[in-house]
Specification:
Blueprint: E1 4-13, E2 16-26, E3 31-35, H1 42-50, E4 57-62, E5 65-66, E6 77-80, H2 92-101, H3 107-120, H4 136-148, E7 154-158, H5 166-183, E8 186-191, H6 194-200, E9 203-206, E10 225-234, E11 237-242, E12 245-251, E13 257-263, E14 269-272, E15 281-294, E16 297-304, E17 307-314, E18 324-329, E19 335-338
Parallel strand pairs: 3-8, 3-9, 6-7, 7-8
Antiparallel strand pairs: 1-2, 1-4, 4-5, 10-11, 10-13, 11-12, 12-15, 13-19, 14-18, 15-16, 15-18, 16-17
Bound molecules: adenosine-5'-diphosphate and magnesium ion.
């Protein structure tokens, strides 16, 4: 069992509200993703559920019991942090054993449990290493393992994939989904990444404070691509420029301006890098990095000057990782925001 109920939960720091008035029921066994932009209070909310931070308003229940005033250790919840928060001076074995030491288990029992969990995450051969001798992906597994050893009612995960590269992120996403299925435990997962939310969640809670320009990026699915760019006027026409990005938008004459350029993933068209440029609008040069199936559609992750741009298309569009491509967007689908 692991049903978590939040009633009117809030947290202020001095006079500023980081989280206010959250009512939410997280059902037992669900994989609930709280999705929202950076700074909207996701970490603060998770820390309150974990018992690492006291709410300034509201109550938190676990399986019907009020746990608001219960210390973290007694909550039967485990948290995986964005930074992994491993003990640098302890071996992987000791990092994994640490949460069990407080549970008065015998040494043999602890050793068995640690080995079991390490094997299930395929890090059984790394038990004698220190965190600094591990890759990012391996550290991430140790962090998950440390949550797993206690067999908690619910896992609280704070952007656990944000320090991994794109390929490893996709692989780990699949592994977390499989782990969730295998354990049947409740997963509460916070992220600012809409693709993560869509590919893993059984339920998505969009969680934002609509004062940020970036909220524009969070409505729609997946998130609007937002790229820093510059607006310039060339021969009476307003054009956009950035690394890998060029194109005319509208007739006009404006002073040069730094902006955030936004295009929704479903408004981008993929063309071969060699195709002639016969369209008006923005052209974005990049390379296909990943293709993920999503029902009848696919999400194509492209790398453009080192950053990820998402395209959502029908599965009929041929997209091959490694191909150089050009993404095009018609002027009416290009949004410009002030650089905040
Ligand atoms: P997220 O995880 O969604 O990026 P956070 O929960 O970290 O957001 O932060 C939400 C807001 O609360 C931010 O404006 C942040 O500056 C503020 N905040 C978080 N922790 C503290 C703290 N310990 N003291 C003061 N302000 C904080
Ligand atoms: Mg955070």
């Amino acid at each position: 069992m692991g049903t978590i109920q939040l009633s009117g939960v809030g947290r202020s720091f001095k006079s500023t509200a980081a989280v206010s008035d959250i009512d939410l029921i997280i059902e037992d066994g669900g994989f609930v993703v709280l999705l929202g932009p950076s700074g909207c209070g996701k970490t603060t909310l998770l820390r309150m559920i974990a018992g690492l931070l006291e709410p300034t308003a509201g109550r938190i229940h676990l399986d019907g019991d009020d746990i608001t005033d219960l210390p973290s250790k007694k909550r039967d919840l485990a948290m995986v942090f964005q930074s992994y928060a491993l003990y640098p001076h302890l071996s992987v074995r000791k990092n994994l054993a640490f949460p069990l030491k407080t549970q008065r288990l015998g040494a043999a029992e602890i050793a068995t449990r640690v080995q079991e969990v390490a094997d299930s995450l395929e890090i059984g051969h790394l038990l004698d290493r220190k965190p600094k001798e591990l890759s990012g992906g391996q550290r991430q597994r140790v962090a998950v393992g440390r949550a797993l050893v206690r067999n908690p009612k619910a896992f609280l995960m704070d952007e656990p994939l944000s320090n991994l590269d794109a390929k490893l992120r996709t692989q780990t996403r699949h592994e977390l989904t499989a782990l969730h299925r295998r354990l049947g435990a409740t997963f509460v997962y916070v992220t600012h990444d809409q693709v993560e939310a869509m590919t893993m969640a059984t339920k998505i809670v969009v969680y934002d404070r609509p004062e940020s320009v970036f909220v524009a990026g969070f409505l729609g699915s997946p998130a609007m691509n937002l790229v820093d760019a510059r607006i310039v006027t060339i021969d009476g026409s307003i054009a956009v420029t950035a690394d890998g990005i060029a194109g005319g938008l509208w007739p006009g004459d404006v002073p040069d301006l730094d902006v955030v350029l936004g295009v929704r993933p479903e408004k981008l068209t993929i063309a071969s890098a060699h195709a002639a440029s016969d369209t008006r609008g923005v052209r974005i040069a990049g390379r296909i990095d990943l293709v993920e199936n999503l029902g009848g559609e696919q999400i194509v992750t492209c790398l453009v000057a080192g950053r990820e741009v998402y395209v959502r298309t029908s599965r009929d569009v041929i997209a091959t990782p490694g191909d150089d491509i050009v993404l095009t967007a018609a002027p009416e689908n290009v949004h410009l925001f002030d650089r905040a």
